[in-house]
């Protein structure tokens, strides 16, 4: 019977799983041994008796004389052996029970090294994903361990008849008696988050102050307590609109949290129909930006008015009001910590165009700072990025000088010279001088390149833009389709031509319904985001808008908010309400002509594209279960009416020209 024999002196190395290994034929052993670094190579061959011999001594592998005392029978091949590379095909059917590695036939040592490099890259990527998953599992195990300790302590307290532990105030912000600063929740669904200056350790109660509450039963407020690093939710409360009242709102945890030193964060999520109002009190004193409440509106250098209490671990067990147990243990946004760009890679960022400086504080790696003038934009690039297991690339930018000045920038990803994620130009400046955005990362065997271009908006003065962060993130419960970039032949074409060449047949990849609102005043709207809108030569990654039904004709509403993708390069006349500024577009001739005259060419093209696709977009949206009770014919008719009127007006303008 054929046996797997390993040289006795090499047995420990053969089964050492601390680094990957490869088996090669004797002809390739010398070439592989010369490049051995961080991995191990073994010479392997089938001898005349049919046994498979593995050793790190080439002379022993080739020797026809076999000393049984120098060889040890192995039960199976270890899992860290990536492959067997040889110039002749080897049949290892007799060793099927030993779980042999894949056998790859190559002609030369150079081909063998190239194939092994590809295998090693894949193994490294897989190990990085496994490490991330292991860290997440360890974090979850620690949380479960703390919960178990708390339950056991509470059980001992109940069995011993001990008293309930008291809650101790450990944090109290300021609060105005009346008329102080507030955070007014916008119409529809909104999210805000604040980092606290204390850890989760032994927290038992948080309280926030409601300044105003005029809410119907359709509204709700959700409050979550989570860890800033891992993003796990430790407390969640859901309060219906008719239960919201002005004053302090105390929210208790079921158990006192354990010895968790992770920084605490509070997340506020609201849903408000039109006409409802909810405002939370803010601390009158200003605070550091990283401790302020972060929301979709203009940044405010204040935090919520809060009271935070701690308790004795295991001595406080409650049945909390408004408790939302379905959120506990889930991830608030991502199921892993950010995978940040390696420090050494910051020095590899290249300057393609313009004036760029590299600035560092202390021991941190130097960050590029782009100096922008009306005459000169700036472009930087970084090649061979690879974030295994991640879905999005998160990029942070800060406008350092003249934050009131407005710039626009374009982030582009390429693989094998092809644009793999077309992006719109984005705007930064005015009330927003810090911007973090995400690009989808394709699942590819090879890396990809990043290029960032920034320029001043017409009329803006000189400005400095710093690239502050690059990180990969894994989205929660999201499958990752594998992307194979198209093969390129001949000369490189402009990116715009590549985009037109690969436009899909579908008008868009999906439509997300954020919410539906209807009131008694003959008003209704659907809040929609359409993704990858593609018609003829026009492509838009994401556009958010409302389809509004009121009065004689329908309208499209666009909000000027950071969390509303799409928008306009040049905003026409804006209307302002309690929730921010917006523009409402109706297909009447005079109003449409007036708005189009104020828009850029790109904005006008976006409006025409969206109008022509509106019936199909609304038809896709009506499949949402939340719209099952709606009059689908009415919404479809509204979309068709808008599209028809807009197309008629466009045809009239074409004839006039």
Largest beta-sheet characterization: 7 strands, mixed
CATH class of the largest domain: Mainly Beta
Number of strands: 35
Beta-strand share of residues: 35-45%
Strand order of the largest sheet: 5-1-4-3-2-6-7
How far the N terminus sits from the C terminus, by CA atoms, comes to 89 Å
Q: Based on the structure given, which CATH architecture of the largest domain is correct?
A: Sandwich
SS summary, helix count: 9
Poorly predicted runs of 5 or more residues: 476-505
The percent of residues in helical segments reads 10-25%
Structural domain count: 4
Helix and strand composition category: alpha+beta
CATH topology assignment of the largest domain: Jelly Rolls
Q: Give the radius of gyration.
A: 31 Å
Mean pLDDT metric: 77
Rough shape? globular
InterPro entries: DUF6212
Pfam families: DUF6212
